[in-house]
C-alpha cells in the first residue's frame, strides 16, 4: 500500500476516534463559549465579551460563524475542533517528512493520542490554536531549508492566527529565534524573520487596551477568589508532572490512585525510553520546541497563573515527533500505539472520564422542581451551563455576596449546586445561610463533574 493510501487510512481513523462519544454535555468552559457565540454579535464579541474573558477573540468569531451555519448543538459545534484536530494529524505528518522522520508513525501516534482525541472534541480554542502552531512550524522548517516570499507570508499569517486564538502559545515565539542559532543562519534570515513578526506586533498594539482590561479583570478575580489559581493553573511540580502524565495517557484516571500510579510508571518506561532517544536525535529543533515553552510558561505563571497541561496542547505534535525520532523497532511502535488505544478505550468506556453532566443536572432539577422553588449557585450568577441548558422553568440565582434571606423569602424549596464551592465558598457559608432560613435537607443527587445537587425544603 502506497504512503498516500496509508496516510488517508490513518486520517480516516483519526476522524473515527474523534467522533466517538461527542454528544457529551457541555462543561463550564464550553458552555461559556457557545453561550457567547450564540448571544453576542461579531462586533460585541470583540468590544464587549472579550473584556471579561482572558482569551483573544478569534475563536469566538469562528465559533459564531460555524454555529450560525451548522447550529449550536453538542455534535454540531464539536465538529469544528474535530476538523482542526484531524488536520493537525496531517500537518504533523508533513513536518515529519521535512525533518526526515517517519511521517506515517507520527501520524499514527497523533491519530490515536488519547489527549489529542479528547481535546479535539473540546469546544475551545486549544485544538485550533495547536493546529496553527503546528502549521507555523511546518512553514518555519521549510524556511530553514529554502526561503521564498510565499512561505514567509504563510508563516507570518500562521503566527498572527494562533496568537489571536490563544495567548499561551506566545511561549513558542522565542523558539523561532532560537532554532536558527543552531542552524547558523545569517543576518538576512533574522531580518526576514523580524518582518514576519510585524503583523503580529501591529495586532498586539491594536489589542493592547483590551488586553490590559483583561489583565485587570483577571487580577480582580484572583483577589476576590484567592483559590481560583487552582483552576487556572499554578506553577507547581504537580502541574509540571501532569504535562508528562496527560501527554502519555490522556484525560483518564482511576479511583484507585495506587493502581493509577503503577500504570503511569509502567507507561512512562516505554514512552520515556523513546523520548530520551528522540531528544538526543532532535534536541536542536524538536527539543527546543517542546522544552522552551514549558520552561517559559512555568516561570511566567509565577506572575500570571496559567500553567495547566491542556493549555500546552500545542506542544503535543513536538512530543510525538520526538517519540517517533526515538523508536527503534516496529515492536516499539506497536506497544506505543497499543498504549494509546487502551487509554482511548478507558476514556470511551468509563463515563467518569467524560465531561461534566450539566445537561443531565439541569434536566433533573427542572423535572423535579416545583413552582415555589429556586436553584442557587455558589457564584455571582448561575453558571453558563445552567443558562445554556435551562428552559427558564425554574428560578435561578447566583448567591455569592447576596442576601440569602431576600433570595428565598417567598420560596418553599431550594436546589443548591455545590459546583466550585471549594473555591468560591470554602466555609460552606451559603448552605449555613439556607439552613438558617428554616430549610432542611431532603435529598442529594450527584452528577459527574457538577458535584452534589442538594434539595432542601422549608420546615
Automatic annotation (TrEMBL):
Residues 55-207 form the Glycosyltransferase RgtA/B/C/D-like domain. The keyword Signal does not apply. GO terms for molecular function: pentosyltransferase activity. The chain crosses the membrane at residues 65-92, 99-119, 125-144, 151-177, 189-210, 258-276, 288-310, 330-349. GO terms for cellular component: plasma membrane. Its main location: membrane. It is a multi-pass membrane protein. The keyword Lipid biosynthesis does not apply. It is found in: Cell membrane. This is Glycosyltransferase RgtA/B/C/D-like domain-containing protein. The lineage of its organism: Bacteria, Candidatus Woeseibacteriota.
Amino acid at each position: 500500500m502506497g504512503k498516500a493510501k496509508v496516510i488517508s487510512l490513518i486520517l480516516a481513523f483519526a476522524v473515527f476516534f474523534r467522533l466517538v462519544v461527542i454528544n457529551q454535555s457541555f462543561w463550564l468552559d464550553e458552555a461559556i463559549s457557545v453561550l457567547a457565540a450564540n448571544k453576542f454579535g461579531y462586533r460585541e464579541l470583540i468590544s464587549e465579551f472579550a473584556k471579561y474573558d482572558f482569551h483573544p477573540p478569534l475563536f469566538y468569531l469562528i465559533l459564531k460563524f460555524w454555529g450560525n451555519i451548522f447550529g449550536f448543538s453538542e455534535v454540531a459545534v464539536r465538529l469544528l475542533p474535530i476538523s482542526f484536530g484531524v488536520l493537525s494529524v496531517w500537518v504533523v505528518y508533513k513536518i515529519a517528512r521535512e525533518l526526515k522522520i517517519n511521517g506515517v508513525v507520527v501520524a499514527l501516534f497523533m491519530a490515536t493520542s488519547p489527549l489529542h482525541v479528547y481535546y479535539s472534541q473540546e469546544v475551545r480554542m486549544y485544538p485550533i490554536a495547536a493546529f496553527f502552531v503546528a502549521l507555523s512550524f511546518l512553514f518555519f522548517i521549510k524556511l530553514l531549508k529554502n526561503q521564498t516570499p510565499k512561505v514567509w507570508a504563510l508563516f507570518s499569517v500562521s503566527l498572527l492566527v494562533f496568537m489571536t486564538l490563544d495567548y499561551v502559545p506566545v511561549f513558542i515565539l522565542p523558539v523561532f529565534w532560537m532554532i536558527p542559532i543552531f542552524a547558523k543562519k545569517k543576518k538576512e534570515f533574522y531580518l526576514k524573520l523580524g518582518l514576519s513578526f510585524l503583523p503580529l506586533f501591529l495586532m498586539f498594539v491594536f489589542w493592547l487596551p483590551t488586553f490590559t482590561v483583561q489583565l485587570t479583570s483577571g487580577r480582580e478575580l484572583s483577589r476576590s477568589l484567592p483559590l481560583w489559581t487552582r483552576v487556572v493553573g499554578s506553577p507547581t511540580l504537580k502541574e509540571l508532572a501532569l504535562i508528562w502524565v496527560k501527554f502519555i495517557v490522556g484525560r483518564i484516571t482511576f479511583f484507585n490512585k495506587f493502581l493509577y500510579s503503577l500504570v503511569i510508571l509502567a507507561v512512562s518506561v516505554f514512552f520515556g525510553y523513546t523520548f530520551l532517544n528522540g531528544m538526543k536525535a532532535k534536541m536542536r529543533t524538536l527539543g527546543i520546541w517542546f522544552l522552551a515553552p514549558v520552561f517559559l510558561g512555568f516561570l511566567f505563571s509565577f506572575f500570571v497563573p496559567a500553567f495547566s497541561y491542556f493549555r500546552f496542547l500545542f506542544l503535543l505534535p513536538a512530543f510525538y515527533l520526538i517519540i517517533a525520532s526515538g523508536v527503534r523497532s516496529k515492536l516499539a511502535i506497536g506497544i506505543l500505539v497499543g498504549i494509546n488505544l487502551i487509554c482511548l478505550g478507558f476514556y470511551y468506556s468509563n463515563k467518569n472520564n467524560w465531561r461534566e453532566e450539566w445537561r443531565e443536572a439541569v434536566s433533573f432539577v427542572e423535572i423535579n422542581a416545583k413552582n415555589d422553588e429556586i436553584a442557587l449557585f455558589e457564584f455571582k450568577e448561575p453558571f453558563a451551563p445552567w443558562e445554556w441548558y435551562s428552559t427558564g422553568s425554574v428560578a435561578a440565582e447566583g448567591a455569592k455576596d447576596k442576601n440569602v434571606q431576600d433570595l428565598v423569602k417567598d420560596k418553599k424549596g431550594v436546589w443548591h449546586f455545590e459546583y466550585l464551592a471549594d473555591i468560591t465558598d470554602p466555609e460552606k457559608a451559603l448552605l449555613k445561610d439556607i439552613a438558617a432560613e428554616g430549610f432542611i435537607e431532603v435529598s442529594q443527587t450527584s452528577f459527574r463533574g457538577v458535584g452534589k445537587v442538594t434539595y432542601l425544603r422549608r420546615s
